[in-house]
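W.,

You were right to be curious about this one. When I first looked at the sequence I had no strong expectations either way, so I just let the prediction run and decided to look at it fresh. Below is the sequence, 101 residues in total, followed by the output.
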Amino acid sequence: MTEIPVYRTCRPPHLREQIKALVKNQPIDYVTFTSASTAENFYQSMTNGHLLNTKVISIGPTTSEAIKALGGSVDREARRATICGLVEAIEKEERCALPSN
């Protein structure tokens, strides 16, 4: 058997600066993670406090476990491991956050 790598995961070179700029200029309501590697890259690039008052949505159990292992917390996990599932998780989180009349 011959192994043929089709992609490799790498952290963007200026991710830390981009995160700092985003958080500094506007409040971030949600951050979504679509894989364990995106969570690892994000958490390795940030400092404590970047996610204050920001909800974390995970695409599924493997990604959620990675987030927790990195010291993060998961506010909601998508029921379906798809981008649509992430959107549905945010919608559900928003409905839960609305005050009842």
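Here's what jumped out at me. The CA atoms of residues 28 and 52 lie 9 Å apart. And, maybe more interesting for your project: The mean pLDDT is 86.

Coffee later to discuss?

I.
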